[in-house]
Design goal:
Number of helices: 3
Helix content: 10-25%
Distance between the termini: 27 Å
Strand content: 35-45%
CATH class: Alpha Beta
Radius of gyration: 14 Å
Shape: globular
Largest sheet: 9 strands, mixed
Length: 137
């Protein structure tokens, strides 16, 4: 597995995008995509020779994420890309990680499956097996 992106939860995507552009020199690489299953709006940011950043803004009915961003938001999860999501999830469960969200289509990844597991130290991990990002600019 390799890190695909790091995700930060923000109260407002437009403000989050502007902040990452102004402070860190990142540029928006996708248009905003709504992930209806995860109840978030998603934008990917890029910078040459750096990791991809994903910003998420909660939809109105995502109460737990709304509470998080209302307390300031911030780091949400690491995403690892693997060759086979089902095999990787089986291996991670055998290593003691807890399944949070089973594989399901992720609109931000052109409906390729995504899954979430919980690792030690409260680390939220997303697993994908695609390079696809929806609605590239």
């Amino acid at each position: 597995m390799i890190i695909d992106h790091i995700c930060f939860a923000v109260k407002n995507l437009d403000e989050g995008i502007a902040y990452w552009e102004r402070v860190f020199g990142y540029r928006q690489m996708t248009r905003m995509v709504v992930n209806s299953l995860q109840k978030v709006k998603v934008v990917f940011m890029r910078k040459d020779n750096s990791l991809t950043i994903k910003l998420i803004e909660p939809l109105e009915d995502n109460i737990s994420l709304l509470n998080f961003v209302n307390r300031g938001g911030g780091f949400h999860h690491l995403c690892f890309k693997c060759d086979n999501i089902d095999k990787e999830l089986k291996d991670l469960k055998e290593k003691g990680l807890i399944s949070l969200v089973p594989p399901q289509p992720g609109e931000a990844f052109n409906n390729h499956n995504i899954a979430f597991v919980l690792a030690r130290y409260g680390m939220n991990i997303e697993i994908i097996d695609t390079d696809k990002k929806a609605d590239l600019l």
